């Protein structure tokens, strides 16, 4: 695992522990990762993440969002109806409402149900790719950038949890939501200006 991903994972685990948020990580079996790599074209950095920090039960908590990450064991079934058929065969052309075969769902909004997904169509030199989300229940999927790479996505989740410390977790006041967004923006800019500009988090 490269240092960028390792540092992001470490920061994420530390803030979960500091916030007292129960989270359970494991290590995905090599044979499962190999199977997922073959079928879903998972990039190297995401495979490394599953090998070292498989999110068996992991959900973030901020005033504006709760991101629930998918464990390796659930990845294939979560693609059914999107990039895989009911028989779990790869859909060669865009699926319902323009979902692309290169998009791989890796998490969901626990508040809204919207997917978070990798775009594996063009991995970068580090073997990573951007993370997007899109609003469910619309006529067509319209992706919005969440992070320029998966390693940055993990880092952004950690930063969001840090900024959210001290905010109420339930029955959040709209003023608190705006205060959180205003505080999160400058922190996000330090790591991923493109994600800040896309506006999903703020």
Unreliable segments of 5+ consecutive residues: none
Q: How far from one another are the termini? A: 30 Å
Spatial shape: globular
Range of helix content? 40-55%
Structural class: alpha+beta
Q: Which class in CATH terms?
A: Alpha Beta
Instruction: Tell me the number of structural domains.
Output: 1
Q: Overall mean pLDDT score? A: 93
| CATH fold topology | SMI1/KNR4-like
Q: Taking strands numbered 1, 2, ... along the chain, how are they ordered across the largest sheet?
A: 3-4-5-6-7
Taken in chain order, the helices and strands follow as HEHHEEHEEEEHHH
Oligomer status: single chain
What is the alpha-carbon Rg in Å?
16 Å
Figure out the total of helices: 7
State the CATH superfamily name.
SMI1/KNR4-like
The major beta sheet can be summarized as: 5 strands, antiparallel
Q: How many beta-strand elements?
A: 7
Query: In percent, how much strand structure appears in the residues?
Result: 5-15%
By CATH, the architecture is named 3-Layer(aba) Sandwich
Structure description:
With 202 residues, this protein is an alpha+beta fold. The chain has a single domain, classed as SMI1/KNR4-like (3-Layer(aba) Sandwich), CATH 3.40.1580.10. The chain has 7 helices and 7 strands; from the N terminus they run H-E-H-H-E-E-H-E-E-E-E-H-H-H. The strands form 2 sheets. The protein has a 5-stranded antiparallel β-sheet with strand order 3-4-5-6-7. Strands 1-2 form a two-stranded antiparallel ribbon. Helix 1 runs parallel beside helix 5, helix 2 packs parallel to helix 4 and helix 5 crosses helix 6. The radius of gyration is 16 Å and the shape is globular. The two termini are 30 Å apart.
């Amino acid at each position: 695992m490269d240092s960028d991903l390792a540092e992001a994972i470490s920061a994420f685990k530390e803030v979960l522990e500091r916030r007292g948020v129960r989270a359970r990580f494991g290590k995905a079996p090599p044979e499962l990762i190999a199977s997922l790599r073959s079928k879903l074209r998972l990039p190297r950095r995401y495979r490394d993440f599953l090998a070292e920090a498989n999110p068996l039960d992991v959900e973030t908590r901020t005033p504006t969002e709760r991101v629930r990450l998918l464990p390796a064991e659930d990845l294939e079934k979560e693609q059914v109806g999107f990039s895989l058929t009911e028989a779990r065969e790869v859909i060669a052309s865009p699926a319902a409402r323009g979902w692309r075969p290169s998009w791989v769902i890796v998490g969901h909004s626990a508040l809204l149900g919207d997917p978070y997904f990798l775009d594996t169509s063009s991995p970068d030199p580090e073997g990573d790719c951007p993370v997007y989300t899109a609003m469910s229940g619309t006529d067509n999927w319209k992706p919005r950038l969440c992070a320029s790479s998966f390693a940055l996505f993990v880092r952004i989740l950690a930063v969001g949890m840090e900024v959210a410390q001290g905010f109420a977790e339930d029955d959040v006041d709209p003023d608190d939501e705006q205060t959180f967004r205003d505080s999160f923006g400058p922190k996000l800019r330090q790591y991923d200006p493109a994600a800040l500009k896309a506006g999903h988090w703020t």
